[in-house]
Amino acid sequence: MESNKKGYSSVDEYISACAPEVQEELQRMRAWIRAAAPEAEEKISYQMPTFAQNGNLVHFAAFAKHIGFYPAASGIENFQAELAGYKSSKGAVQFPLGQPLPEALIRRIVEFRVAENKELGEKKLQSKK
Q1: What pLDDT, on a 0 to 100 scale, did the predictor assign at position 129?
Q2: Pick the CATH number of 2-128 from 3.90.1150.200, 3.20.20.60, 3.30.230.10, 3.90.25.10
Q3: 86 touches 74 (CB < 8 A)
Q4: What tens digit of pLDDT does each residue of 23-35 get?
Q5: pTM exceeding 0.85
Q6: Residue 88 pLDDT more than 50?
Q7: DSSP labels for 87-125?
Q8: First to last CA, the chain
Q9: Least packed by Cβ within 10 Å: which of 50, 71, 106, 119?
């Protein structure tokens, strides 16, 4: 996607640079992430839409043939069986364009990442005492 070469200042700006049919998919994903992590902050990180709460939770991005979803290595590892039908790597999964996004799975991965980041944040606080 050409728009990945541009610097973005907001998630809205990133999404509006995409093709209309891709914008719809990105807005759906954004809404599901927001529902699973209502306290998370939206930002652009690594030039991708990002949700952060006690650190980065997940990133997502549009490409020519897929939507990339980046829930960190732990998000991929803990849902490996459910992600088996998708191309994935250590910290990313590709959801092909033209196929329905797996809403329930995305929500569960985000909820897992919220809990994980909360636990990591609490451990950091304890270690500082």
Answers
A1: 63
A2: 3.90.1150.200
A3: no
A4: 999 999 999 999 9
A5: yes
A6: yes
A7: EE-SS-EEEETTS---HHHHHHHHHHHHHHHHHHHHHHH
A8: 47
A9: 119
